Amino acid sequence: MRVVITGGGGFLGQVLASEILKRGHLRSGEDSNVPVTEVVIGDVMEVKEWLFDSLQTSSIVTVKVGDVCDASYCASLLNDDNNDKDGGLCVFHLGAVMSGAGEADFDLAMNVNLKGMMNMLEATRQFRPTSKVIPTFVYASAGATIGSGCDTDWIQSGDVISDSTRAAPHTTYGMTKACGELLLSDYSRRGFLDGRGVRLPTVIVRPGKPNAATTSCFSSVIREPLSGTAIALPIDGNLKHALTSYTAAVDGMLAFQTVSPSLANQVLGPYDRTAFLPSMAVSLADLQQALSQIVDTASSSALGFITYNIDKKLSNIVQSFPTSIDSSRANALGAPPTPGLATIIRQYCTDFPNAIHPQLKLVDSPASTTETENYKDAPNLIVAIVTGAGSGIGRATAIKFSTGGWGGPTGKGFAPPQNTTYGIVLVGRRLDPLYETQQLCIEAAASQKDHMKLHTLVISADVTCEKSVSELFTKVKTTFGRLDLLFNNAGANVPPAPFQNVPMQDYHKVMNANVTSTFLCSQQAIKLMS
After folding, report:
1. What pLDDT sits at residue 367?
2. Would you give the DSSP letter of residue 450?
3. Which Pfam families does the entry mention (predicted)?
4. Are residues 414 and 330 in the same domain?
5. What span, in angstroms and rounded, lies between the C-alpha atoms of 315 and 129?
């Protein structure tokens, strides 16, 4: 399979290309495991700085310099003598002129964002794989398609917005992105390609210099201090803004690419192929506080100094942006939630160590409780297990539990008794998202007026396996000695199919994940509760 990434030389494009190389396979039609044999990075200029060594050393990565305003260049990205059309094609169209630059130069924004989109769609339409597999086209749109702040707008900043919110952009950038969404849906409806669009919130933390986005300061508040550089921020520190991490943004785009055509059609339908990715409402002050909490105080003097030189016009623009976003359709397609702020900052430090001042040191990340620790004698201890705690409902429930949002030992009411110690056991297959949930639980507990006494236990387990479940509950018993609540949240689904055509492997997958896991965990829970 050939993968084409426009704007691939930029930050997000390089993160995406690097992740695709790690995975090695993507979806093409009904086949979810097609090897990636070519990654074509298209950009308007040569890559100034490679952020990941793998992109320089990989034999399947090529760079093609050109302008998406040129239809022949777009066609060359998809078709050349080296392309095996039988392998399929996936296009990630990221190339665009950002909001600030778009307002400064209308013609540039129209040519790159609108004409360039049309050229890439048409080039994909003309691509004719002999296998008859329709190419996949993933489009990076933005929340700028939605306008608010004007008295006559359909929504205001305090409203909850969703994929069904009417587009009324306030900028040329937002207008061109909205037009791109309509084009994507119509090309997809007609069967020219399989279009899937993601509305990206502000993405942090971007390395290097600030980009032309209106909200680039949400990266600057982390990036510059970590490099030892002073920064004056132009936006009121208490204004909330919807954002996500670069890892979650890329994982969201890949979730949209890898989901089956049947599920994509079920969720997105034929006429609106773009969905909001999950985000989190965060202020500059929130980010500044998170940064101060993870930097070792002994080295904090190396942090660049943060001041505020507030631009009222810019602050008013940001204040007008809605921050409550319903991303249920993206969730249904497997898009991950936004990680906690500490996780976002630590990830940036790990991925770009050369951007961090050499004298700065981070405090150790919160480690999960191990089975050798025990809290059996903790006062007023109540313990909950949440399976499938790495995302979605499981994560949200675990965070709520961490703030005392349950009945407590008596089961009466939702006000936690005084001096309660909470034990939350986070269970799932993959550790990374569980650690993110753990950090969010710790942050939620710390935010309470009366600091919550919280102990978290992270366990990687296969809840469909009797031996794995037995080991899980043995760890819980060793650590806490009791159990008060089990939330059987883990589950799985498969693409819809007529009953007579459901494969046995799909049947077993659903029954094991949804029924067997509940039986095994409930059986062990009753023993521990007795």
Report:
1. 44
2. S
3. adh_short, Epimerase
4. no
5. 49
Catalytic: which of 73, 139, 173, 375? 173
Quickly tell me which residue has 């992270």 as its tokens. Answer: 458
Strand, helix or coil at 528?
Answer: helix
What is the model's pLDDT at position 369?
44
**DSSP assignment of 242-255, as one string?**
EEEEHHHHHHHHHH
Tokens representing 173 are 């950038």
* Parallel, antiparallel or unpaired: strands 61-65 and 381-387: unpaired
Find the helix or strand (DSSP H, E) in which 438 lies. helix 431-446
What pLDDT sits at residue 370?
Answer: 40
In a domain, 360, yes or no: no
DSSP 3-state of 508: helix
pLDDT of residue 213: 66
Q: Alpha helices of 128-239 — where are they, by DSSP H?
A: 172-189, 217-226
* Domain hosting residue 477, numbered range: 381-529
Beta bridge pairs of residue 100: none
* Cis status, amide bond into 205, omega within 30 of 0: yes
Q: Is the dihedral of CA 243, 246, 248, 253 positive or negative?
A: positive
0.90 exceeded by pTM: no
- As a whole number of Å, the CA-based R_g of the chain is 24
**In a shared domain, residues 326 and 410:** no
Provide the number of structural domains found in the chain: 2
Note whether 332 and 443 are same-domain residues: no
* Token pair recorded at residue 228: 């030892």
Take residue 97 and report the two structure tokens written for it.
């002129």
Same domain, 430 and 326: no
**Average pLDDT by stretches of 10, the chain with 530 residues:** 95 95 90 91 94 93 96 91 71 91 92 97 84 88 88 83 91 94 97 96 89 80 95 91 93 94 93 94 90 88 93 84 88 85 88 93 60 66 92 90 67 58 88 83 76 81 86 88 92 83 83 92 93
Per the annotation, the verdict on 375 as an active-site residue is: no
Residues 442 and 329 in one domain: no
Angle subtended at Cα 447 by Cα 445 and Cα 450, rounded to the nearest 5 degrees: 75
Domain membership flag for residue 291: no
- The reply to whether 430 and 335 lie within a common domain is no
